[in-house]
């Protein structure tokens, strides 16, 4: 007599239908936010699917790097805009967190420089040096703004 398949004692979650265009949605959001978790969530996938796809699909990995570079540029430009315009306010009544923005710029510096080097066909070391100069310039502007406001 044939053995009957056993039913699993634990119930698994029903799978969500994933759009075949999730890769495009993920890359678009990653370019805006530089946040893998948020991008995956908005694309309707898990972060593990995103990372696995990046590992297995070289073209997706290339697009991922390009999106991170774009996101890095967005953050850098936003910080510079705020400094130039004296825009210290965040969306609510709190102050814009320049220190955290600089930490993010530093944290993503290597990925950003690798992506930019690939696009410009220059060495990653040259790009890192350029980024370091820009971050130092931002720090200096923040310090000057603080000194100006303090009346020093």
Structure report:
This protein is mostly helical. It has one domain (22-150). It is 70% helix and 0% strand. It contains 7 helices and no strands. The chain has helices spanning 22-33, 36-43, 47-56, 58-85, 98-107, 109-120, 124-150. Helix 3 packs across helix 4 (58-85) and helix 4 packs across helix 6. The longest helix has 28 residues, at 58-85. The chain is flat and about 60 Å long. The chain starts with 21 loop residues before the first helix and ends with a helix.
Please give the number of β-strands. 0
Major sheet characteristics: none
Assembly category: single chain
- The domain tally reads 1
- Radius of gyration, CA atoms, in whole angstroms: 21 Å
Which structural class do the helices and strands define? mainly alpha
- The helix count comes to 7
Report the portion of residues in β strands: under 5%
SSE order: HHHHHHH
């Amino acid at each position: 007599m044939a053995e009957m398949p056993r039913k699993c004692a634990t119930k698994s979650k029903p799978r969500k239908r994933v759009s075949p265009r999730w890769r495009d949605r993920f890359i678009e959001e990653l370019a805006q936010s530089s946040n893998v978790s948020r991008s995956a969530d908005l694309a309707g996938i898990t972060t593990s699917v995103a990372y696995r796809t990046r590992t297995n699909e070289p073209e997706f990995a290339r697009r991922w790097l390009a999106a991170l570079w774009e996101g890095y540029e967005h953050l850098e430009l936003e910080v510079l805009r705020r400094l130039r315009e004296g825009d210290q306010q965040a969306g609510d009544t709190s102050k814009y967190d320049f220190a955290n923005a600089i930490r993010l710029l530093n944290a993503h510096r290597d990925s950003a420089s690798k992506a930019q080097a690939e696009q410009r066909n220059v060495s990653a070391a040259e790009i890192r040096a350029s980024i370091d100069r820009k971050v130092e310039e931002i720090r200096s502007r923040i310090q000057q703004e603080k000194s100006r406001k303090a009346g020093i």
